[in-house]
Amino acid sequence: MKSFVLLSIMFMVFFFLTIQVSAHDLIDDTCKKTHFYDLCVTTLRSDPQSSKADVQGLARIALEKLQAKANNNTLYHIHKLVNRGSFKDVF
């Protein structure tokens, strides 16, 4: 859940980023502007498309990672409830 929140914040930072960055290393320069540099770099570099992406592309990658994490967390909690055999926590 903590990484979901961190990825959400990272996405918002990307979305509102308006400062020009050098072409040297866009991921590094962009992630330096976030509060969670290590998480940002790790997340973006894990996607092969990030090496060719512009800032908008990096934001799209971050959003896709965020959505995947949210889906995985939701499925985890659903399976946990199903395995307990009780849905009274849900309804």
Automatic annotation (TrEMBL):
Q: Does the keyword NAD apply?
A: no
Q: Where is the signal peptide?
A: 1-23
UniProt KW Signal keyword: yes
Pectinesterase inhibitor domain spans which residues?
25-84
GO molecular function terms listed in the Swiss-Prot or TrEMBL record: enzyme inhibitor activity
* Keywords of the record: Disulfide bond, Signal
Q: Which SUPFAM superfamilies match?
A: Plant invertase/pectin methylesterase inhibitor (SSF101148)
Q: Matching Gene3D superfamilies, A to Z?
A: Invertase/pectin methylesterase inhibitor family protein (1.20.140.40)
User: Which protein family is it in?
Assistant: Belongs to the PMEI family.
State the PANTHER family in the record. PECTINESTERASE INHIBITOR 5-RELATED (PTHR36710:SF18), PECTINESTERASE INHIBITOR-LIKE (PTHR36710)
Instruction: State the protein's name.
Output: Pectinesterase inhibitor domain-containing protein
Q: What is the lineage of its organism?
A: Eukaryota, Viridiplantae, Streptophyta, Embryophyta, Tracheophyta
